[in-house]
Amino acid sequence: MQLYNTLSAKEREKLIEEAGKDRLTISFYKYAHIGNPHILRNHLFITWNEMEVLGRIYVAHEGINAQLSVPAENFEGFKNHLDSISFLENVRLNIAIEQDNKSFLKLKVKVRKKIVADGLNDATFDVTNKGIHVGAEEFNRLIEDPDTVLVDMRNHYESEIGHFKNAITPDVDTFRDSLDIIEKDLAEHKEDKKLVMYCTGGIRCEKASAYYKHKGFKNVYQLEGGIIEYTRQVRDQNLENKFLGKNFVFDHRRGERISEDVISHCHQCGKPCDTHVNCANEACHLLFIQCEECAEAMDQCCSVECQEIHALPIEEQKRLRKGKGASNKIFKKGRSPVLKYKR
Ligand SMILES: [Zn+2]
Ligand SMILES: [Zn+2]
């Protein structure tokens, strides 16, 4: 039985192009007790591989977190399969705002300790005592309330290109860091303010809201389904959109536009821009914001140094990387002294 990818990303890309069929980018998550994540992992891989589903899925004893690309014609079959797994019956599917047939090029189902690397010791608090879930309409009302403190639970490179009006956007590299910073900043207001939080698809707020309640915050709210579901509801129900800019996503699209506002800047020349790229030098791979002019001038590199390496023959580049370990696997996200205009 084949339980792993046999096609490379390039081969897959070609197949998708040749097929010319629409695919849907979908995400979902569910906290649930899973006895044997390895069995579930293999079951999902075998079934979804047959349906030509691609994506990145984490399975753990605590649940499942999935980001997927599903052929539109197989969507019903996919949904029926989810419904056949008891704890996933009627799970909310977040459907991407902007579709891209190449959002994922491989199917990776991984067994992990946790479905979000949140750095929390779950044994120290009641993870089921979550905040109040609110939909878009209620969220819009709440964030206009002067007694509300609105916090963005994502990392700096995500909120940089898009966030809700008036949100606190911690300048952090990890989820764990933001928990501490927010708690410290709001220590005075644990009882008198409403703490309203949001993230991309809702999963980070599930633990964060329980954590803050454990830390003594009395009024904790979380945006149901995150920015993705908010945007869907705003469009469906004709509500006012209070999200500015782009929603950062963790697939090949890198971001989806929610409003026309461009709130960030090219990290190389400073002009308004919200396009994330990875440095074309494989050994660097730095994630940063680069405008088209700078991309052209710099060969999509973050620095002259990387540009020089990138210009070398591939074999020479490989030789240079040798022995330096997996430096390009360490995701350097949006921080480097070479980026003049990073805030
Ligand atoms: Zn530029
Ligand atoms: Zn670079």
TrEMBL record:
SMART domains in the cross-refs: RHOD
Protein keywords: Oxidoreductase, Transferase, tRNA processing
Family annotation (SUPFAM superfamilies): Rhodanese/Cell cycle control phosphatase
Gene3D superfamilies noted in UniProt: 3.30.70.100, Rhodanese-like domain
EC number in record: 1.14.-.-
GO molecular function terms noted in the UniProt entry: oxidoreductase activity, acting on paired donors, with incorporation or reduction of molecular oxygen; transferase activity
Record-annotated Rhodanese domain positions: 144-239
Biological process, per Gene Ontology: tRNA modification
CDD domains listed in its UniProt record: RHOD_YceA
Catalytic reaction(s) noted: uridine(34) in tRNA + AH2 + O2 = 5-hydroxyuridine(34) in tRNA + A + H2O
PANTHER family (alphabetical): TRNA URIDINE(34) HYDROXYLASE (PTHR43846:SF1), UPF0176 PROTEIN YCEA (PTHR43846)
Membership in a protein family: Belongs to the TrhO family.
Protein name listed in UniProt: tRNA uridine(34) hydroxylase
Organism: Flagellimonas pelagia
Lineage of origin: Bacteria, Pseudomonadati, Bacteroidota, Flavobacteriia, Flavobacteriales
